[in-house]
C-alpha cells in the first residue's frame, strides 16, 4: 500500500486520518483526545454531550421546565456545559498534538447559540468546527468570529457550490477542509437529495472528483477533501491516495473507533458490533429531522417499520371510495376510509392495535394503547432538541415555536432514545429498544481478523493498524 503522509489541514501538519463525530456522548473528549494524540484529527460531539459534577459524577439531563420553551433553555445550558467539558478533556489528552474538532448538527436546537458560546469559553482549545445535517450557511461567519477553521459536511458538489457562493467565499482562508459524506454508506443522518435513489448507491469517486473540480474553480486547490462513509481499510482506497486529480485527501473513520478501549459505548454495544451481518444496517426515513438515516435494524427500527405499515388514508368527508365511517379518538370523531382499509383497521384492532393516531399526511396509524400513551408523553415532554421536529411539531422560531403541522406519530423522540442508548448500552436489552446509529460497514467487525478472539484495540493501536493499510 502507498505510504500515508501528513497533509496540511487546519493550519497544521496532521495525519490525514479523522475520527468522525458521533452525536450525544458517542464521540467524547476521551476518544477524540486520544485520536488527536496519535497525530490525526479527533472529533468530539458537541450535541448534548455529558458534563460532570465536582465529584466526577455525570450530571443527568433532567428537565424541570413546565413549557417546551423553558425546557429548551435548560437543554441549551446542558449542551454548552457538556461541549465545554468534552473540549477540555480532549485538549488535555491531545497534549498539543493533532487537531481537535467539535462536531455539531446545524439542525440541532439552538446550534448557533451553543457553538458560539462554546467557542467563546474555549478559546484556543477547539481547532475546528465540523458541521452537517442541513445547509450551514452561517458556519463560516461563526468560524471567522473566533478565528477557527470550519469543515462543512456535504454529499454533493452541488451542495458545496450553494454554500460557497452564498457565504463561504467570504471566509475562504478558514475553510479547513470539505467533508464528503457518502449518503449511502455513512452512519447517522445522511444527505440524500430528492433526486437520488436510496436503493441505488453511486460510486463515490466521480462525485468526489466533481467536488474537487468545483473547488479548484474557486481557487481551493490545496484545501483537503475528507472522505467519510464506507472507509474501513485504506488498502481499498489506494487509487485515492496521492491521486493528483483528488489531492489533498484525508479519510474519516466513524464506525471503527466505536470498538476501541477509549470508546464510551457500553460493553453490550461493543459486543453487538461483532455480530452484525451485511444488510443489518437499515437506511430509513423515520428520523424527526426528516433526513434519511442509517441505523441497525433492531427492535426499535422494526417497531417503527411495523407502525408505519399499519397505516391507512382517511378523509373528513365522503370522497371517492372513502365512504366507510370510522370513529377516531375518545370522542369517536367520524372520518372516512375505503371499505378495504376499514377491514384492515378491524384486523389491527383485533390484534391489540386499537389506537388510531392522525398523521400530517391525512393517514391513521394504528398502535397499542401503551404505545399511544408513550408517544403522547414523549411529544408533551419535548425540549426542542432540533430546530424543527416533525415528531413533536417544535420549531425554535417565535412567536409560536411550532411548525404549524400536526405532530407525526410515525417518528420518535430522538433526544430520548439517543440519551438512553448512550448511557444504558451496557445492557443488551437497551440495544433493542433504542435507536442504534451505525455506518453500513459495521458488518466488517465480524469479518476483519484484527478483531478476532475478542480483541479490542486502543485508539493508538487502531491508528497504527490503519496506517498499515488495514
Characteristic terms for this protein:
TIM Barrel, alpha/beta, 470 residues, 8-stranded parallel sheet, 2 domains
Helix content: 25-40%
Q: Termini separation (Å)?
A: 10 Å
Largest sheet: 8 strands, parallel
CATH homolog superfamily of the largest domain? Aldolase class I
User: So what's the overall shape?
Assistant: globular
Query: What topology, given as strand order, has the largest sheet?
Result: 3-11-10-8-7-6-5-4
What name does CATH use for the topology of the largest domain?
Answer: TIM Barrel
Based on helices, strands and strand pairing, what is the structural class? alpha/beta
Strand content range: 15-25%
| CATH architectural type of the largest domain | Alpha-Beta Barrel
- Residue stretches low in confidence (pLDDT < 50, at least 5 long) are none
| Number of strand segments | 18
CATH class of the largest domain: Alpha Beta
Gyration radius, rounded:
23 Å
Short account of what is shown:
This protein has 470 residues and is of the alpha/beta class. It has helices spanning 29-37, 68-94, 111-121, 139-146, 157-166, 204-217, 267-273, 299-309, 339-350, 369-380, 414-424, 430-433, 459-467, and strands spanning 7-9, 12-14, 17-19, 41-45, 99-105, 128-132, 149-154, 178-181, 188-190, 225-228, 249-253, 281-284, 292-296, 311-313, 324-328, 333-337, 355-358, 363-367. Strand 15 and strand 16 (333-337) form a beta hairpin.
